[in-house]
Amino acid sequence: MIVYRTFRNADIPRFGRLWHSAGLGRGAAVGITNDGFDWVLFAQPYFDRRGIFVACDGDQVVGLVHATFAADIEHYGLKRTTGVICLAMVLPKYQRQGIGTELVRQGMAYLREQGAVEIFAGQAPPFDPFYHGLYGGVRPSGFLSSDVAAAPFFQKLGFKPHEEFVVLQRDLLRSSEPVGLRLLGARRATRLDLLDNTEARSWWWETRHGRFDSAVFGLTRKTDNQLLARLSVISLDLYQHTWQAKAAGIVDFVVADEVRQKGFGQALLTGACKRLREELISLIDMHIAASNTAAINTAKSAGFKEIDRGTVYRYAGDTPVVLA
Prior knowledge:
This protein is an alpha+beta fold. Helices cover 26% and strands 32% of the residues.
């Protein structure tokens, strides 16, 4: 008989066994120890075990849903009016038995009891408190297409696609360096700087990206020392076993409005990749909203290739889901 309850400390190793057996796809880091999960997940200051619901068959955890909340507008606390189902997994042999549906129902009930008036499935900024460096790559960007069970499951429960993200990667060992006159001109006019990485960041950034080694690169115009573009690089050490590569990810990629589509974004990306290859990084991961075609084209011009997509779903019903 399946028993449902909330998470307990003794479930941490059971969580790990379920994570590695649930078939979450290429975007889920594997080979993670209990300490690894504790460091990235359970040690978060806003972790609340009451938001994790588990399904047990005897002593075995066979399914789990993690429900939590978005960041507030200042990024220094939680916004409990916006809830998110950030993880849902059921062992393959227990799927299609209503277990996942019941877990989501309990998760949504918890979110509503805490004040949620809208509920999403799949994380993306600013509702992305957990699983950075564990699911998706450099950051969660909804549920991935490679996580094949996610889309039909959530759409069946009344969730509708809300936002889509493109997951891009560049293999630094096998890809050639981009060339072009515009890129050459941008490089001649600028220099690549390693910027100060000790500047104050928001509490939200520190709890997620701040748990990993990071660096900040900037592209500066030589004539007036104006910073034209910048990006942050985050180590992805937990993916080394999954992707068989020493990987890093790019976040916070920004190009000044007045110099966009003039080759400076491409120059920053290619320059940062070259510097990272010298540091023995062999794979770079980057996520961009599908609606941001200019940024996607810039990334592709710098040698990145689309390898996956992620979708955030929004619950479209007026009442919690019920068992079919």
